[in-house]
Each structure stands twice: as structure tokens, then as C-alpha cells.
What does this fold into?
Amino acid sequence: MFRRVISLIMAYSFTYVNDETVMLPFADMLNAKTGYNNARVYFEENESSSPILTMKATKDILKGSEIFNTYGDLSNADLLRKYGYVDNINPNNCVEISFDTVANTAKVNTMYFEARLPILLELGLIDQYDSFIIGSDTNIPEDLDFIIKAFISDKEEWESIFDGEQSGNELRDPEDGNMYELSEDEEISDIDGMSGISDIDGMSGISDIDGMSGISDIDGMSGIEFDIELEYPKFGNIDMGKYNNFVEKLILNKINRYNTSLEQDKENLDKLIVSNRRIDELITKVLISEKEILQQLLETVKK
It folds into this structure.
């Protein structure tokens, strides 16, 4: 019952001033559909009374046409987690890759992983709880691009960027293969068991709805994001063959974390639709959207 109530609040509530959550029975009648938004809710201050809720058109609406609210530029994973539905066509779809997945790929496929990881952590350029978002355009995001290049760059390229930035930490030459003595309050997790990161089935942030396993965090109204921009050092001479090879290994590592393949999901989807297993159907659509992005990126780096 508790989860059901929380789900209803998440799906039908609005964020009011000061991040207060309010229920608005009239406003929540409007549907939302990616790409069809033509109106939105505004809270307007009123000196003589409480703020007034106003629904305003954001474009001309033909008579007899449906009015669509907007929930923001959300992927199907977020739409399912927050509102209990997905859009069949959604350009905002994405796939999330945990730092755990990147670290394990680097540990197996690069020479300098053990030596460089502590330096990057100490400088605050990476965080073991980071995750990296690849959108439907399959572009590698800047933060992931930097980490890949940091691990695969040769000694000369690495030293041209990081030489002289190790003072005061008793950090040794990053190429000697030894680990480092960091400050007492600095802890580096064992990459093989990176705690606090769950990339279950590759579906980060989607909840366990009606007992569905393999999807995490519904009652977490977690999802608080901190928009902090780092300026990453720029690598110049990178072997793009080595770069693409790492991305390929990373994608395969991510794909192997799913319990089913893309082909199996597509085959199962038809059966789920026929059997009217709605929740399973929606989850499978999200999995398909993630795996299609990974498959497209994999084909790109193999060319």
C-alpha cells in the first residue's frame, strides 16, 4: 500500500515554490507525450491571496486537439519510474553506464589503471559514484571521454598534462606501477567490489514496481542532481584505434550486465503485449531502448 501511495504522489504531484510537493486534481488531468507538448502549468504570485495556478498554451492549439502538459525532457526510464508509462518514440532515451563498469573495463584493458586511478580521484576529476549518460545520438559525454583518454593515454601524453600536479600528496611517478599514500581521509574502494553502485540489469533508477525484480529504487524519490561542471584537461595525441577499442570493450561489458539480449527482449515484448502484462511490457521497452543505443554505438566504433 505504501509503495502504491508513493507512486501515485510521484505520478500526479507538482513541485511548488520552495520545492514543496502539492497535489492538483484539475491540472493532473492533462496527459503528457514527448514532442507533443503545447501547454504547461505556471504558479503565479498573487499579493492578496495564495499563488494562483494557471495552465497556459505554449503554442497555437487547433480546436478539438488534445492539450498536452510536459514532464520535461525525460527518457523512458525516467517516465516509467516517475509516472508509470513510456513513449513509443522518445528522442530523450539514454543509457547509463556506472563508474564501476568503466573501472572494471579499464582494469582489464589498460596498462596504467592501478597507477592513475588514485591521482584522478585525488584531483577530484573522477568520483567512484559517477555515472555516465549516453543519449540516443550515441555521442560519448565529455566526462566519460576524459576518463577513457586518461586511462589509455601513453606516458608522454599523461605527463604533459599531469606533471607537477602531485605535490603535497606523496604521490609517486604514475608510471612506476605502485599505489599511492593519500591523505588519511581519502579512501579508494576495491574496484572489484565497488560499493554503492548498482547497475542492475543496466536499468539505473527504475523502481521495483509491483514486485518486479531487477529494477531499482522506486520509493527513493532520489534523483536529486547537482549540476557541477568540471573543466577537464584536454588530451591531444590519443590513439583513436585504442580509444575505439576501449569503447567497444566498455559497451560489451555493459551489455553483458543485462540478463537478456536485445533479440530476446524484442521477442518477449510481443508475448507480453498479447498476455496484457503491462508492467513487464513497459520495462522491456525501456530495456530495448537502452540496448539499441548501445548497439548503435557499438556499430559506430567498429567501423
